[in-house]
Design goal:
The protein contains 2 helices and 3 strands. The chain has helices at about 15-25, 55-65; strands spanning about 1-10, 40-45, 75-80. The longest helix has 15 residues, at about 55-65. Pathway: Purine metabolism; IMP biosynthesis via de novo pathway; 5-amino-1-(5-phospho-D-ribosyl)imidazole from N(2)-formyl-N(1)-(5-phospho-D-ribosyl)glycinamide: step 1/2. Its main location: cytoplasm.
């Protein structure tokens, strides 16, 4: 079995209250190196068998039409991952 990972992030102009909350918690936990946090979504699609170009194209279409809201989110990655990643 193979896996395709889809990463979705809010568009840059969209406010990210969850990212701001995480950023606010960082200093309390000793993480002072970071100046911004954006929280997104990750989807893992399992494929029985080999991932073909058609399968990858279907994953991209699903990402654009179902897994993301194109008004406020961008699909930033659709990629095949190896086991252990």
């Amino acid at each position: 079995m193979a896996r395709i990972v889809v990463d979705v992030m809010p568009k840059p102009e969209i406010l990210d209250p969850q990212g701001k909350a995480i950023l606010g918690a960082f200093p309390r936990l000793g993480f002072n190196q970071f100046s911004e946090v954006r929280q997104g979504k990750r989807f893992e699609l399992t494929v029985d068998g080999e991932v073909t170009e058609d399968t990858l194209a279907a994953a991209r279409e699903a990402a654009e039409t179902l897994l993301s809201n194109p008004v406020i989110e961008d699909v930033v990655n659709v990629a095949v991952v190896e086991d252990g990643q």
